[in-house]
Fold:
Amino acid sequence: MQRVLITGANRGLGLEFTRQFLERGECVFACCRNPEAAVRLGELKSVYRKQLEIVEMDVSDFESIRRSHEVVKTHTGVIDILINNAGVYSIYGSKEPSEHLGTLRFEDALKVFRINAVAPIIVVQEYLDLLVASSGAKIVGISTGYASLSLNTKGFPYYYSASKAAMNMFMRSLSVEVKKWGITAVLLDPGWVQTDMGGPGAPLTPKQSVEGMIRVIDAIKPEQSGCFLNWRGETVPW
Ligand SMILES: NC(=O)c1ccc[n+]([C@@H]2O[C@H](COP(=O)([O-])OP(=O)(O)OC[C@H]3O[C@@H](n4cnc5c(N)ncnc54)[C@H](OP(=O)(O)O)[C@@H]3O)[C@@H](O)[C@H]2O)c1
Structure:
């Protein structure tokens, strides 16, 4: 049984990761901003009482991350897989960004960067003791094809794509620093998926995308640390 911590676990890909890890018998710490409102996590809790803990964490708030760590530590001394999944597409959360020249604002850009780029590395920092305690922990950053500089020929949304590219660089640097503890860090592009963010027209269901990503996570080797792969395990160009 592995101990898995997932951010943004109340809906979309985070919820599907939670469901699939529970189904195969793992112990899951499902983190979300508002556990009381997380109805679907509550339903899973009634089935997987012993395997699932729902933990409050707003990834944009340092104190919230720190408090979540205190809570998780009362249940386990080890995290084997940390999935930095929480993310926003725009300052409106999952909604389509409408950024273009003339509307760009420091505050808006930094809000998206705070959640998508900086939060993942702070979460790792605050959970480092539990990751080091695992024999070969894996850290997963949920990235996107929009983070690829070389694929951007059409003009991706400014804040989202740049913030995810920044997360990629944070994770790449992290992958070097955590090697000494036997920790592997990987970036995964889930594909275009039917969630609030992806919308109903996306070609992939959360089930398909997450099944693929879990296969990739299971197969990842320490020597691949720092790589950027899609849900099928194929390399995504930087
Ligand atoms: N769907 C796609 O096609 C697609 C493609 C490429 C990459 N991705 C990436 O996949 C990840 C999951 O996306 P999704 O499609 O599942 O999106 P989603 O349905 O919009 O879900 C986003 C999740 O992130 C959480 N979140 C946002 N801000 C947060 C914060 N400050 N603290 C904690 N949680 C926060 C949301 O919680 P609340 O309910 O509290 O807002 C929600 O659980 C994201 O990182 C996204 O960029 C998605």
Q: What stands out?
A: Residues 7-8, 10-14, 32-33, 58-60, 85-88, 93-94, 115, 142, 144, 190, 192-193, 195-198, 202 surround NAP (CB under 6 Å). The longest helix spans residues 106-126. The first strand starts at residue 3 and ends at 6.
